[in-house]
Design a protein that fits this description.
The protein is α+β, with helices and mostly antiparallel strands and about 240 residues long. It has an 11-stranded antiparallel sheet. Strand 4 and strand 5 form a beta hairpin. The protein has one domain.
Length: about 240
């Protein structure tokens, strides 16, 4: 599920999208970034934290063969039994603060992995996925708060034949004939908070449950041109 696309042309009112904005306070915030390059029959993408699930979803939707899989699934709830029902057996599980980290390794069908992505959109899938004609690499833990944005947190290499899929999913609502080199970045301006009545006298719960209200912008730079897409958000 592509939460960035949902901000502009879908349903913002989803819990998994809210989870991604809890970390933001009032003011201007830098969001995810990505650089897409096409050369020699290959598309290469380097992206920051926030794109890992989106890139995984893209390759799983177009894959047919079994995929070599290694990495961590980070969940905010215990999902042991559900993963087993989906056909995924974690090698190891550990708890860190309020999260559960599941280490997985092995070969899985794209359908099995895709079911996990769809079933648990709030999870963070920090997975290395290697298929017949693609390779996705992701760092194995989220960046620490306050650090500079790591623009190479995840990377994807896939055939140029998937260009249309990349344009549709990552460069959505942009009329591009090709993606020789595209730079994308997001910015959020959080102007206020919509706090439910039952949480107004509890600052900790208010921070967790309040809707962030403001404006999201997506910038695309391509062939010397810069285009901006804006949307009001309540997430």
């Amino acid at each position: 599920m592509n939460y960035l696309r949902e901000l502009f042309e879908g349903d913002q009112n989803q819990e998994y999208i809210h989870q991604k904005f809890i970390k933001y306070g009032r003011g201007h915030k830098n969001g995810p970034k990505a650089v897409i390059k096409k050369k020699g029959g290959k598309i290469k993408i380097k992206a920051s934290y926030g794109f890992e699930n989106i890139l995984g979803h893209v390759v799983l939707e177009t894959s047919r063969d079994k995929i070599k899989t290694k990495g961590n699934i980070i969940s905010f709830q215990e999902i042991d039994d559900s993963l087993e029902l989906l056909g995924i057996t974690p090698e190891k599980k550990r708890k860190k603060r309020k999260t559960f980290i599941y280490r997985i390794a092995g070969e899985y069908t794209p359908q099995t992995l895709l079911r996990a992505y769809k079933e648990y959109p709030s999870c963070i899938f920090l997975l290395d996925l290697r298929g017949k004609d693609f390779k996705l690499k992701t760092k194995n833990s989220p960046p620490k708060p306050g650090k500079d944005i790591d623009e190479e947190f995840c990377s994807l290499q896939l055939p140029a034949s998937q260009e249309k899929k990349i344009i549709d999913e990552i460069c959505f609502d942009e009329q591009l004939s090709d993606i020789d080199e595209v730079r994308i970045w997001y910015e959020y301006n959080i102007k206020g908070f919509d706090i439910q009545e039952e949480y107004k006298n509890n600052p900790q719960m208010a921070r967790l449950h309040a809707k962030r209200v403001g404006v999201a912008q997506r910038f695309i730079s391509h062939k010397g041109m810069e285009n901006v897409l804006s949307a009001e958000i309540r997430v």
